[in-house]
Amino acid sequence: MSDNNMLPAKAEDLIHFDSLLEQGMEAIEQYSGQVWTDKGEQDPGVTLLQDLSYGVSDLAYRHTLPLVDLLTPTDTPSGGGVFPAQFGPHRVLTCGPVTVDDYRRALLDLHSSDAGETPGGFYFRNVQLTRESAEEQYQYWYDPDPDKREFTFARPVSNTEPTQLTLKGNYHLYVELARGADKTKAQTALDAFLKANRNLCEAVRETTWVEPQLLQLFSTLELEDDCTDYDRVLAELYMLSEAYLSPMAARAAASGLSEQGVANEAIYQGPQLSHGWMTQLPAARDYNQSVEVDLSPLVNTWLSIDGVKSITLLGYWADGYLHTNWRLSIEANKYLQLWGDNPVSYLTSNVDFVHLYKKGQRCSSDSSAIKKHITTVPLITEQDVVMPYGRNRKPAEFHSLSNRLPPCYGLQQPLPGDTQKQLHQFLLPFEQILANGCQQLALLPDLLAFDRSQPSPVWGEQWPFAAYSLSDKVHQAYKPTLSSLLDGYKQDDSKELATIDYLLGYFGSQRAPRTLSSPLSDFLKVQRGYLSQHADLGYQRSNIQIQAVSALQKRIAARIGIGSALFDQSPALDKLPFYLVEHRALLPALPDEHYNAEQTPMAATSDQQNKNLLLTVAVSADHPLHVGLLIDLIIKDGGGSGNDYILPTVMVKAIDSTGAVLTCSMQDNEQLARNLDKVIEAMKAGTLRWKNSNVWLHDMWYPLSYGDAKNLKEGEKRIVETHDAPYPVMLQKSDQIAIRYHISPNASLLEDDKQSIIHAQVVPRDWINGSFVIKAKDGSTLPEEVANYRWYIDDQGKTLSDRFSFMVSLVFPRSLLAGLTDACATEAWIKQCILDEIPCHISALVHWLDDSAFAQFGVTYQGWQNDGAPLGDRSYQLLKQLTLGRTPGVLDGIRHMRIAKSAQQQAATEPGWNPDYISENELFYVPKN
Description:
This protein is an alpha+beta fold.
């Protein structure tokens, strides 16, 4: 980039002044040789040609300047470099943690200095990430009984065989605290890291802090006769022993590795590290198993210490006596800690664990002197790798042709005549072309910039003459018109898109085709955002976070060319062009079986300011509760004599530091908000209980809604989606659905056979517009009236499949496909773009919603995200809109309904039957006749 001598000799010859002049003369000979006979240097035409040849040669030579100089802007900012720091090899060649070793490296890189602590150290000595064992796995049950069709945490008692399902993608993290690290601060750093670094559809559900196992080495060493530095010997003995028994990760600066000849691709692997690139990780270990350590290598290690003559004894204290077999066992979930928290104290003579002898005499030592000899590896602080700026060569500076012509042409006369004006005008097109070329070269820092958030000209243009110069005055009459024409010429959207496509090619990408009818300005903003954030989007491509637009979502948006709002710094989450939802994020925390039985709370208070219920409970230290847990609040005899009133699936939004005060949000549970006073009264009366929620989700059912009968055959019906029944994207042609009569406040009990199940088969389907056609099976007849009928997918393969592990949903507005010639082909192309970007082990469902449903989805999604993605009313709304399930809070039966009081009975039945009031107030009813 900085060497301009690489220009081929042939190219240098072509742009030389003599070569250009010769080519001009040849052209004159070819086109006007019969007319232009005098080609001597005294000829004005030859003089003008020489002047033009010089200008062209000058512009051509400017192109041969070192590229780093041409990319250096006129106003060079302090620091930084030619390209933004995020496009350096430390970012472009790395990726966010994905593999187990990636996570180990990133966690071992956490240092207290990152939080501003001085002096500081690394938080962790070793970490290990393992898949959950069979006993730890998140498991739940599905009961396919047609009268239940529900998800439970405990095995249900059912007329049909339930299916056990396992949530995959969960991990158990084991961490060893580094010597001297503060556990509280390390926990804070770990929590922040895990929140910011989570692979799509994966999570660390459990973290175990491995406990130290004290190792009290006992040794006796004989020193050389001339050894006098006993403190140094003990310090080296400690450091070498620590390095053998508890080695840290080996680190090297990227600059040092580069000087050794290591290629960038080999240096910058895995996640971007701040404190050196790890050339060797601590040995991996299964913390669930004990492991043996051989102490014999310490002998040769200690003998290498300057001044050590021999070792007469090596062993360790354990169980009250000295072991000299040189092998010890590290217990499961333990790590060795040499000489405890204060190892130096074990090295001094008054503790009597390490004995130094010289000429048969015991050598004394001092703790403070030993500490002075203990050295630590200097902390490496990696700097961003940037290409430094060069020297700005002022490529836009243009020297007018008219100023170089001899005085005899009169172009320098203060009052030019008509002849001189005509010559000025004759030269103007040539000067304008050359001036524009110089300005085009000056635009290189903008044209080749990866950050194009601010639109800049793609074609160079500048007025060739300095203000108030003689040539400038000559063209004053028409200068404004020419300037306006040039101003419109410098912006070219097609050239801008071509430039973006060229720059994306450096990363193996390309700009999106204009398949969708989004405005050009929005499309350009998307492609600019994709380019400017390309390095970070590649780095975070497998990462997902709460309250943030994922890199995957942005990459998909860039591939299909929509969604400029996604690339804003803080996009409004309710106004996104489409949504990406991770199914596992909608799941509650796995309950502890210890709390399956009814528990009596210690206190229940209302926090009206924050709209929360604070529930104080008795918690076992061995069975802590977790945020995201679902509990049932039970009011004993609340539904009448011998009947309990249950508020199901109340989510635990927060838990205080004691683990005993649970915060339950009323904003996330309307039923709790309506019944808060009753809960407080029940607490005072001693009739309030709580326990784990067992039923946490009901499978989907849909109100029966018929569409138009156009192009239908006899016996067929078209079912369309409704506000309460989005289209199930899992539904395929030839699938079977079941239609059942549902008793509700609107129901009418007139026929005995309405409880029978009607089976129907899907004929064609139109998932884009949300409809499908069915025909009855087995001689059944489809109901003509849709009121109080429900339907659901009656396919064991779909209902019993795991719909939460490695699954995501993408939600688009149907208006995106409006007006397209072939919406199906476009929808297939969008799906292919999604598949190209999404990790291959993850399945994606694509939902198409009408504008009102899509807007409502956005509002729900924003509230759910801003509240930390809890399981509550909003998440159940998302579950329903994604056709994953329905809230179990709306249950049938007297235990989930209230006996109406006189005023409620009047409001529910007068002047007429009011189904909405009955449902909202959870009143017990018998369907009207």
